[in-house]
Design a protein that fits this description.
The two termini are 20 Å apart. A hairpin with a 2-residue loop joins strand 1 and strand 2. By secondary structure, the protein is mostly helical. A two-stranded antiparallel ribbon has the order 1-2. The longest helix is centred in the middle third of the chain and has 28 residues.
C-alpha cells in the first residue's frame, strides 16, 4: 500500500498550529520571562500572525484549483515578508559594534508621532536595541529561528497548496 499524504487541510492546520505555538512562545518570553521585544521583533510577530491567519484560512477554506493557488501565494508572501524582516534583524545583530546604529525612540512613540510609512522607515533603518542579542537557543539568536520558521512554514505551506 503506497504512502498517502494527509489531506491538504490537515497539513495547513498543522502548520498553523506550529506557527501559533511559536507566537505563543514569543509572548511567553515577553510576559513571563520579561524579555522585551525590539521593533524588528514586533514586526516579525506581525508577519507570523499574518502567516498563521493565511494557514488557518487555507485550512478552513480547503480550496482547490485557483483558490488553492491564491492561498499558496498569500502564504508565500507572508513568509517572504517575515523572512525579509528576520534577515534584516540578523544583519543588524552581526554588525561590528562600532557600526551599530544608535538606539532610537521606542516604537510606541514613533507610532504616535509619525505617519505609518515613516514608522516603517525608522524601524527598518534599525536601532541599537535591535542589534542586541538577548536570547539564544543552541547558540542561535531568535531571528535565526524565526527565519528558519518562515522558510520552513512558508515552503511547506506553498507546496501543500500547489500539490493538488
Amino acid at each position: 500500500m503506497p504512502f498517502m499524504l494527509p489531506n491538504p487541510r490537515v497539513i495547513n492546520a498543522l502548520l498553523a498550529a506550529g506557527a501559533a505555538t511559536l507566537l505563543s512562545y514569543a509572548y511567553y518570553l515577553q510576559l513571563v520571562v520579561g524579555l522585551e521585544p525590539c521593533p524588528l521583533c514586533i514586526f516579525q510577530r506581525i508577519a507570523l500572525i499574518g502567516l498563521t491567519v493565511m494557514l488557518v484560512g487555507a485550512a478552513v477554506h480547503g480550496a482547490r484549483g485557483t483558490g488553492a493557488k491564491i492561498w499558496a501565494l498569500l502564504i508565500g508572501a507572508s513568509a517572504l515578508a517575515g523572512a525579509a524582516i528576520a534577515t534584516r534583524h540578523l544583519w543588524l545583530q552581526n554588525l561590528p559594534p562600532d557600526l551599530v546604529p544608535a538606539c532610537g525612540p521606542p516604537l510606541d512613540y514613533l507610532v504616535e508621532v509619525l505617519p505609518p510609512i515613516e514608522v516603517l522607515r525608522e524601524v527598518f533603518t534599525g536601532s541599537g536595541e535591535c542589534a542586541k542579542v538577548d536570547w539564544t537557543l543552541l547558540g542561535l539568536a531568535m531571528p535565526v529561528w524565526t527565519l528558519l520558521a518562515f522558510i520552513g512554514f512558508g515552503s511547506v505551506g506553498v507546496w501543500n497548496n500547489l500539490r493538488r
